[in-house]
Amino acid sequence: MRALVYLVNATLDGYIAGPKGEIDFFPLPEDLLAALVAEYPETIPTHLRAQVGAADAPNRRFDTVVMGRGTYQPALDVGVTSPYAHLRQHVVSTTLPDVDAPEVEVVRDDPLGLVRRLKQEDGLDIWLCGGGTLAGAVLSEIDRLVVKRSPVLAGDGVPMIAGGFSPASFALRDTRTFSNGTTMSTFERVSA
Fold this sequence. Notes:
Layout: E1 4-10, E2 15-17, H1 30-39, E3 62-68, H2 69-77, E4 88-92, E5 104-107, H3 111-120, E6 125-130, H4 132-137, E7 142-149, E8 158-159, E9 170-177, E10 183-189
Parallel strand pairs: 1-6, 1-7, 3-4, 3-6, 4-5
Antiparallel strand pairs: 2-8, 7-10, 9-10
């Protein structure tokens, strides 16, 4: 069965974006970018892949991405309707109008059902790209976390997980530290 992997950047205080969706305050040191290109090239938006040397990189870990409207909106703001054209794209939103990109499926309801259906299909793993509300809605299906923890405090913003109280245990599998102090840690869900 495919795994749902929440790979996300977060501040020290647990925010994945500012109060208005800002992400430009997250540092991206060259060694972290190089690690992402080498290990997770599919997480680089299609329109930026050539700039970072990942234009022809094959999908290594994911063939599908699931994201919320807030995560998808920055691409729309710069005129990109298919930010991850190299992946199957699902945008969960009750407010997003139809998108003029046949490779992007807008999912209006039941994100949990969507994720469960995708996990039953053959293929590579599924990347949960964000945001916090969507992550909270599908928390019971998250199998792995890859958290890039930036040495920044935000004080307010979009939490990594938003939703009701629902403890889930994960075990640390690996942590690496990059030149600016950003860490990338991988956690696996602990079976009950």
